Amino acid sequence: MKDLMKLSPSTSQFLVSLAYFPWSIKPIYGILSDCIPIKQRKRVPYLIISSCLSLLPWLILGLSQTLRTSANMLTSLLIVQNMGSAMADVVIDAMVAEAVRLAGPVFAGDLQSLSWSSMAVGGIFGSLLGGYALSNLPIHVIYVVFSTLPFFQLVSCMFVEDSPKRFQSAIDEHNNQSSVTAFSEEGSGEALGKEGTRRRKGTRKNNKRRSLSKQTEANEKPNGSFNSSPCLSLKSAFFSLCTAFKQPAILRPMAWFFFSNVTIPNISTVMFYYQTEELHLEASFLGTARVIGWFSLILGTYTYNRYFKHKKLRDILVFAHVGLAIISLLDIALVLRLHIPHGIGDKYMVLWGSALADAINQFKMMPFLILSGQLCPPGIEGTLFALFMSINNLGSTLGSFLGAALASALNISTAQFDNLALGLGVQLIGTLLPIGFLFLVPNEVTGLTS
């Protein structure tokens, strides 16, 4: 976008934000995988579909010079590619949510840490590959290389367990358990720790109702097929989502996470322009620098799980946003060249800023992920967890659009970065604003949510 299409920073920021929009509609993928099985399988078919959606755009861009030099076509193909990535992410999130629910709160942090650490290891290798490719390969070859990675993902689907018997058990559990009752109990404003007590009471109260439900289902499904009534499953999933979100213990924290992302104007693409055009840092260096960020993500995940998960959630989120504000100060110092008199190079400022940002972000994401995973009722893990994540992603996307508007309003261009420090100052203020709305998060909730 910068070198070949000569797009402005604000235009690139807008198109990148648009390309990532599929991550904001993840509940659609969750409803599909939860409620509309393919050949009685809920996960593997959608992993295959998502892998193909991720593979084809890179391959097309690698083979067609016309498409990769058109901003509109490039953005459209990137939207399709992100749709495939987001769908795969939903399926994996659902499987992790199932594991979290079965393992219980004691191991919830460990499972999420394992998931994120695995992703970080992949990110390290991906960043090294990206840095090498930018330095040594032409762009069309890079696209073709990128298409081989979703191909490996496609092959890995053969090793994912998703048998019809397991699907049958999951549907039975969803139909027989009173998860909706648990989420629609009175007294919803109480602490999350009391939710389990109400859930157990609701379960005992409805034991007879379950037996009647089993008999009714046996009479109504002579073929034993769950594909015959997908509309009922969709209605059940939608009703479960609505009743779940009536709970202030769910609605209020999710509203805060959404607000905390919307208020922060994301100008990362603008910073990329500044670092490459003004500081003359190579794009390959910035790609390889992500390795430091991924290592920091692992460190942040371990530190949270080891020392912070028993702390109050409000305290953890205050720490995270103050830390992110400090990162904005480092960016301001970089733009104002305040580090030069101290003999600190630009590369070190960029590396440390990226590393600290990724580590601190984990202190905001980990409790959000664990809280979301434990609140997912059986049978619609993919849908509800995807909805939680979409709220977070939609807030980030809107924050990115806000960043594009801010860059345009400040007249930041490839040759004009005089107002970039002012834009970073606005970002700093936006980072601190959510702290004043932490009353939306229940005071008694901890990072472990147990």
UniProtKB/TrEMBL annotation:
Q: Which residues form the signal peptide?
A: none
The answer, when asked if Protease is one of the entry's keywords, is: no
Specify residue ranges for compositional bias: Basic residues.
Answer: 197-212
Q: What is one cellular component GO term in this UniProt entry?
A: membrane
Keywords in alphabetical order:
Membrane, Transmembrane, Transmembrane helix, Transport
* Membrane topology note: Multi-pass membrane protein
Q: Where is this region: Disordered?
A: 178-226
The record's listing under Pfam families reads: BT1
Span-the-membrane segments of this chain are 12-32, 44-61, 140-160, 255-274, 286-304, 316-336, 383-408, 420-441
**Which cell locations does it reside in?**
Membrane
Lineage top rank: taxon: Eukaryota
The record's InterPro entries line, in alphabetical order, gives: BT1, FBT, MFS_trans_sf
State the family it belongs to: Belongs to the major facilitator superfamily. Folate-biopterin transporter (TC 2.A.71) family.
Q: Record's NCBIfam families?
A: fbt (TIGR00788)
Name assigned to this protein: Folate-biopterin transporter 4
